[in-house]
Write a structure and sequence with these properties.
The structure is a homodimer. Chain A is mainly alpha-helical and about 200 residues long. The first copy, chain A, has two domains: about 1-50, Orthogonal Bundle (Arc Repressor Mutant, subunit A), CATH 1.10.10; about 60-195, Tetracycline Repressor, domain 2, CATH 1.10.357.10. The first copy, chain A, contains nine helices and no strands. The longest helix of chain A is centred in the middle third of the chain and has 25 residues, at about 120-145. The interface between A and B is medium-sized, with 22 and 22 residues. Chain A binds a DNA duplex (30 and 30 nucleotides) through helix 3.
DNA sequence: CAGCTAACAGATTTCAATATCTGTCAGTCC
DNA sequence: GGACTGACAGATATTGAAATCTGTTAGCTG
């Protein structure tokens, strides 16, 4: 039973893949399942994605990009003071990840598996996020609020230092009681470390 | 073939267990293997450890404690300036973990598996390490080198912020080229954040 | 009698046969 | 004739029967 008569597009395949992953999980989701969900033969799916890995990569990239886009808005908010912008951005990153993990834990676990079987995608995602952070810190350095000889290095340091609050490997900890305070303590320390001497 | 005629002690069982883990890995190491290595029946092992989990826990605790002990020396070196002491301690922690991981990757992977199937042991280990950090930071706060209203909170923040350089989950990254510089950048930022206003 | 063994029940793991999946391609169908 | 199918070979996953392991205990042994 074909779900619609529309032509088969990469986009429709990605949507079906996401649904199959949600239902079956990363280990049991097959290309045949995706084709079945679309009412086509699996050969047709291979017309749009050369391998199963390419399909998984595309769907994962889409998922990661949805997070980056939301944060890009904050990174671009040049009206806010740099410190405020940095704190908001980090809080939004934490909140976004935590929400994804808490909302639908199985889907989050699924994407976590996909993410670390796909080296390149994560690398790009992290480059994207640290790029946004670099822009915030560079703005702060220019305005004199921050001391940062090399904003890109400082951005990576801030990103790594807050890993506990956005790296999926720590997702289990995101529901423990004191986590908000831990986050505040780490961010507070980092912001103090970035601030220019005369405040 | 009994390896010796000595009486069977908990200590001898732990040594044999470590050897069996090194040889077979965490998934295939059995209590029967340990007993065989000691030339006794597995029932004798159960006389000293109530369950297989208890045996694994004891051997893991021993392994973690070997790291803590080395660091305790630095934490107690009260002749060093607080900032120096903090930097040395963090560098020693990174170095210790990195060495363990690089030296015998399979044994490290084995213990990593054990560590995160045993919730309580890690918790104690982390409490031990953050306790050492707290003492260093508290000393810095007293001497006026650091600003830290709550040294224990600051210690946990520093520990979490440097997770990338001691959490086994990141072991893969410890051999990548820029890791030393990343470490320096994070530690530099944290130390700046801890320093009292007038330097 | 303290320390050990050996045999056991139930749970878990292994292994090999069987089924399913991936990726290709010759051929069908608007 | 461009999008799709369906049959195929080799790779991977599933399954269930057999082997092994965990944890207990009755009894041996020095």
């Amino acid at each position: 039973m074909p779900s619609t008569t529309e032509t088969l597009t990469a986009e429709r395949i990605l949507e079906a893949t996401e649904e199959v992953l949600r239902r079956h999980g990363p280990a049991k989701a097959t290309v045949v399942d995706v084709a079945r969900a679309l009412g086509v033969s699996h050969g047709s799916v291979y017309r749009h994605f050369r391998t199963k890995a390419a399909l998984r990569e595309a769907v994962t990239k889409r998922w990661l990009d949805r997070t980056s886009e939301r944060l890009a808005g904050i990174a671009a908010a040049e009206d806010l003071a740099p410190e405020r912008r940095l704190r908001d951005w980090l809080a939004a990153l934490f909140e976004a990840k935590r929400h994804k993990a808490g909302d639908d834990p199985e889907l989050f676990a699924t994407y976590t598996v996909l993410v670390d079987e796909l080296g390149g995608v994560v690398h790009d995602h992290i480059a994207d996020l640290t790029g946004q952070l670099t822009r915030i810190i560079a703005a702060g350095a220019e305005s004199g609020d921050f001391t940062a000889p090399d904003p890109a290095t400082a951005a990576r340091a801030v990103f790594h230092a807050t890993g506990r609050f956005h790296d999926p490997g720590y997702a289990r900890e995101w529901t423990t009681p004191g986590i908000e305070e831990e986050f505040e303590a780490v961010v507070g320390l980092l912001v103090r470390g970035l601030r220019a001497e005369g405040q």
